[in-house]
Design a protein that fits this description.
heterodimer, A: 331 residues, mainly alpha, MetI-like fold, 15 helices, 3% strand, flat, B: 311 residues, globular
């Protein structure tokens, strides 16, 4: 399809759209409406309710006598709180910790998995015996149920007594005649690293898939030309492949950040946020505030803060996706 | 890259031999694709060192999965030895124990939540994607980005109101609560994926059919459906994967009656004594549907995960 023909079709469509009556426009919209209305009701209304709760003093253990949303009556709150819940979110030590932990956890898991994912994508972009099988095996970690993966890492790999990691160390030490290998308490001694390692294992295949798609979308003739001109492998990678991959790297970092900001399964399963608050991230802290402390107002305020943080990241993600999208639509 | 599997999937999808116009459309699609990506199959060859490095890293990543499956086939005593004993004799006791402890209701709940929500997602997403690609409404890109933005809002921030509302209408520990929420969770992904598949239906063919006086139903069944069939299958698999694996909503909104597979898994580690083989059996069994679905949808996986942005 040439650009010219495409343009002609577009003007034709535009002219038709201009002439179309209101009834025709409604008929065009009709198939869209069920999905649109469903999405607005299920995803947007709860956020409005969250904002509403965030300005209330509402703890289930101290029921007040003001009905929340009279007529619907979702529960009874104590009093209007104004912005005091937000002040708590930004001044409370636990929540400040949670914000820091969220940043550390998300940033390190995303960066490490992007770097390893890039390495794997570059390796898999060339032909070698069993390349298809290698790709199939590599995506397995991403497909294992996240809760199952977290339990697997916690019990089958990290456990100091019978976990695989210490087991292999012990085996190697005994090979060299030692009585007993080192016993490392992985989760206790390095809780954040333990959580991040499990997440990196799960998310590297995701990064690899996006970056591999990016590599394979690279036009072969340019690489060929560079080779003819005597460019080394590293030079071609650095000056041709990496710039081409930039969009895909951005996309994988941003999508990874959005998904990993919401990490709940791994923290819940591997460390329960501990020891102390060492690995409590915002989603887990919100969960604790909600269902362990029953501070609904505070939890809602923290939720609003997470949404704002996500919107900031998401704006960048949307920009990247829309540039890829326009490229595709314009083609 | 995807041309041959696309063709074969579509053939399987066509009930009793595809009609000639659909076959023509497929032929055209294949030619278009080949024209766009001339030498996909001819990636440069890597040397033995390249292959060794690639396989080494691959096996490192796959090792925990292999260890999980292997441990699930050992006795509890062999599973917990130090140093590990990979060559111990195999048994299915771990799996038998799972069924003795009643894993079936959880599997049924998971299947129900993911299959019904996937069906609902498709029922809502396919017409919507049609109105966003083949007969686009005005400002359709804005609508697309509205759907996408809902996917970016963290579910945890909506959990409290969702919990209160679900409790109020009596759906706590009821599988329908999860079905509705999973439908909303996957709808944006499905709409983006389906739009990108429907956009591949060549305009020329649609216009030619309309000029020839083919009605909407004929256009849909003879042209749109055969071409977008593989897309529907891939979208369904992606939605299935995400709902099957979902944990945060399931653990907070369900209990003993409507609990899904991940809820069974976390509730499982309460007993004393050795449980590693059983745990690995549970992890293997409950991950298996998604592993199979994901491997089946491999070629389309990246398209779904990047919300259709990357092909």
């Amino acid at each position: 399809m040439t650009a010219l023909a495409d343009g002609a079709v577009d003007t034709e469509v535009a002219a038709l759209a201009h002439r179309s009556t209101a009834a025709q426009r409604m008929r065009r919209r009709a198939p869209l409406l069920p999905a649109l209305i469903f999405t607005i009701i299920i995803t947007q209304l709860p956020f409005l309710v969250t904002i509403g709760i965030s300005v209330l003093n509402w703890n289930v253990l101290r029921p007040g006598d003001n009905a929340f949303l009279p007529g619907v009556e979702l529960g009874k709150y104590e009093s209007f709180a104004g912005i005091s819940n937000y002040v708590t979110v930004f001044t409370d030590n636990r929540l400040r910790h949670a914000v820091m932990n969220t940043i550390v956890l998300t940033a390190s898991a995303v960066l490490v998995s992007v770097v390893i994912g890039l390495l794997l994508a570059v390796l898999l972009d060339r032909r070698f015996p069993g390349r298809g099988l290698a790709r199939t095996l590599l995506i397995a970690p991403f497909l294992v149920m996240p809760v199952a993966a977290a339990l697997l890492w916690k019990h089958a790999l990290y456990n100091p007594d019978y976990g695989l990691f210490n087991g292999v160390l012990n085996w190697i030490w005994q090979l060299f005649g030692a009585e007993q290998g080192p016993i490392i308490e992985w989760v206790t001694n390095m809780p954040m690293t333990a959580v991040v390692a499990a997440l990196v294992w799960q998310w590297t295949p995701f990064m690899m898939l996006i970056l591999l798609a990016g590599l394979q979308a690279q036009p072969g003739d340019i690489i060929e030309a560079a080779k003819v001109d005597g460019a080394s492998g590293w030079q071609t990678f650095r000056f041709l492949t990496l710039p081409h991959l930039r969009q895909y790297l951005e996309l994988s970092v941003l999508l990874g950040s959005i998904y990993l900001l919401q990490t709940f399964d791994a923290v819940f399963t591997i460390t329960q946020g501990g020891p102390g608050t060492a690995t409590t991230n915002l989603p887990y802290e919100i969960y604790l505030t909600m269902f362990r402390k029953y501070e609904y107002g505070e939890a809602a305020a923290a939720g609003v803060v997470v949404v704002i943080g996500t919107i900031i990241v998401a704006t960048f993600a949307l920009r990247t996706i829309s540039s890829l999208f326009r490229e595709e639509v314009g083609r | 890259m995807n041309a041959p599997p696309t063709g074969s999937l579509a053939r399987h999808g066509g009930p009793g031999g595809a009609p000639p116009s659909a076959a023509a459309a497929r032929g055209l699609m294949r030619r278009l694709r080949r024209a766009k990506e001339p030498e996909q199959g001819l990636a440069p060859r890597g040397g033995p060192l390249w292959a060794t490095l690639a396989w080494g890293l691959t096996l490192m990543f796959f090792a925990p999965v292999a260890w999980m499956v292997l441990t699930s086939l050992h006795t509890e005593a062999d599973a917990a030895t130090n140093p590990p004993s990979p060559l111990a004799s195999l048994t299915l006791n771990g799996y038998r124990e799972l069924f003795r402890r009643g894993v079936e209701p959880y599997l049924i709940n998971s299947a129900m939540a993911s299959l019904v929500s996937t069906a609902l997602v498709l029922a809502l997403a396919i017409p919507a994607a049609y109105a966003l690609s083949i007969k686009p409404v005005e400002k359709w890109t804005d609508v697309m980005f509205f759907f996408l933005s809902t996917k970016f809002l963290p579910a945890i921030a909506a959990l409290l109101p969702v919990y209160l509302i679900v409790k109020k209408i009596g759906l706590l520990d009821n599988i329908w609560a999860l079905i509705i929420l999973y439908t909303a969770m996957n709808l944006p992904i499905a709409i983006w994926m389906m739009r990108s598949f429907l956009a591949e239906v060549p305009r020329e063919i649609l216009e030619a059919a309309e000029v020839d006086g083919a009605g909407l139903l004929r256009v849909l069944t003879l042209i749109v459906w055969p071409i977008s069939m593989p897309g529907v299958a891939a979208t369904a698999l992606i939605c299935f994967i995400f709902s099957w694996n979902e944990f945060m909503l399931a653990v907070n909104l369900t209990g003993v009656r409507a609990g899904t597979a991940p809820v069974f898994l976390v509730g499982f580690i309460t007993s004393e004594g050795l449980f590693l083989a059983q745990l690995c059996a549970a992890a293997t069994l409950l991950s298996l549907p998604v592993l199979l679905a994901g491997w089946a949808a491999q070629d389309k996986l990246v398209r779904g995960l990047s919300l259709g942005a990357v092909k």
